[in-house]
Amino acid sequence: MRSSIRQAWTSLDAEATGPRACEVEACGRPTRYGKAACSDHVDQLPYYAAVLQAARAYEAEVLWLAGACPLTTPPAQLVAGLVAADVRTVIRAHGCRTPARIAVELDLPIEAVLAVVVALQVLGEARLVRQRMVRGDRALSRSFVELVDDRESAARADAA
Ligand SMILES: [Zn+2]
Questions:
Q1: What is the 11 CA–ligand 1 centroid distance (Å)?
Q2: For the whole prediction, is pTM greater than 0.85?
Q3: What pLDDT was estimated at residue 18?
Q4: Which of 6, 47, 61, 119 stands 20 to 30 A from 85 (CA)?
Q5: Contact 100, 94 (CB under 8 A)
Q6: What is the 46 CA–ligand 1 centroid distance (Å)?
């Protein structure tokens, strides 16, 4: 086991340090850092294409969410993608957050975050907690999104 790891590492290392020619079409130009393609052809590598495709899919999902009406779109559809997974991760990692703060942290349009938050609420995965705070002589009220604890929802299911 250990020797096979070392073998793999050594061959990776040899690949990384040895001279390598661009594998795209009949280019053959030397590559940098042991990559399989030169800087002119790096965008034709399968890995690059996969990363680009994933980025485009995420962008398309964000645009779709930002334009979706959370009242008429099935909530399960709104929370099925990677954007909702990111929203859940932020709330899980930092505790309750306002939708605006989540949007800033994930660099997403507020409309996309609100669509996800409304859907999470409808599905019982999250709730809004209103908090009043006093700033100077003004009383403000803000809504924070909080995930409904799994144990909490299990206890409610048991009680029902
Ligand atoms: Zn090339």
A1: 23
A2: no
A3: 65
A4: 47
A5: no
A6: 14
CA of 68 to the centre of ligand 1 (A): 42
Q: What is the pLDDT of residue 10?
A: 52
Q: Which residue stretches of the chain have pLDDT < 50? A: 1
Alpha carbon of 16 to ligand 1 centroid (Å):
17
Which percentage of the chain shows pLDDT scores above 90? 53
8 A C-beta contact, residue 65 and residue 86: no
pLDDT (0 to 100) of residue 1: 47
Interval between CA 33 and ligand 1 midpoint (Å): 14
Domains of the chain: 68-159 (1.10.10.10)
Cα(148) to centroid(ligand 1), Å: 52
Residue 13 alpha carbon to ligand 1 centre in Å: 22
CA pair distance 29, 126, nearest whole angstrom: 54
* Gyration radius of the chain's alpha carbons: 24
Tokens of 119: 């859907």
